[in-house]
Specification:
Strands 1, 2, 3, 4, 5, 6, 7, 8, 9, 10 and 11 form an eleven-stranded mixed sheet that branches. The N terminus is likely disordered. With 164 residues, this protein is mainly β.
Length: 164
């Protein structure tokens, strides 16, 4: 074998390793289960998105976006005295390998300034945005089913969210 052939093989192996490493870095940072968006009646300006998130490493859900809404924010509902309050939050901690549920009455995604009707049985693209402890950002694109009730609350099981 000549030096040139050995060099080419080594370069090809290094390129293959770099491609495999890049693929590993783009793998989904979070597993998503039971994702759904609440259907909105015509004229309604906002709705919620809900799901269960399990991070592979400690992350923070810091935002979301969808072409169906002018604003998508991480929100929290909680009791303050005898009043239920909803407010935007800077994010939700996702400890490694622990499932965190975004649900009605708790943390959720609030979709506001809806640009289109959010109708039952449609699918809505939503991109989740994450940040790790070092400030590195990642995202996950989903296609989320629109439902009038939470999965399991009605007959039939919910379809999982699909990445695109």
């Amino acid at each position: 074998m000549t030096f040139n052939t050995t060099f080419r093989r080594a370069a090809a192996c290094m390129a293959l390793f770099a491609c495999a490493s890049a693929w590993a870095q783009t793998a989904a940072p979070v597993d998503v289960q039971d994702a759904w968006v609440r259907a909105a009646v015509p004229g309604q300006s906002g709705t919620g998105a809900f799901m269960k998130l399990t991070a592979h490493e400690g992350l923070k859900l810091v935002g979301a976006s969808t072409p169906a809404a002018g604003v998508a924010e991480v929100h929290e509902m909680k009791m303050e005295g005898d009043t239920m309050r909803m407010r935007g939050v800077s994010g939700v901690e996702l400890p490694a390998h622990r499932t965190v549920e975004l649900k009605p009455g708790g943390y959720h995604l609030m979709l506001m300034d809806l640009k289109q009707p959010i109708v039952k049985d449609a699918t809505l693209p939503i991109t989740l945005q994450f940040e790790d402890a070092k400030g590195a950002k990642s995202s996950l694109a989903l296609n989320v089913p629109v439902r009038s009730v939470a999965p399991g609350a009605a007959a039939g099981a919910a379809a999982p969210a699909h990445r695109h």
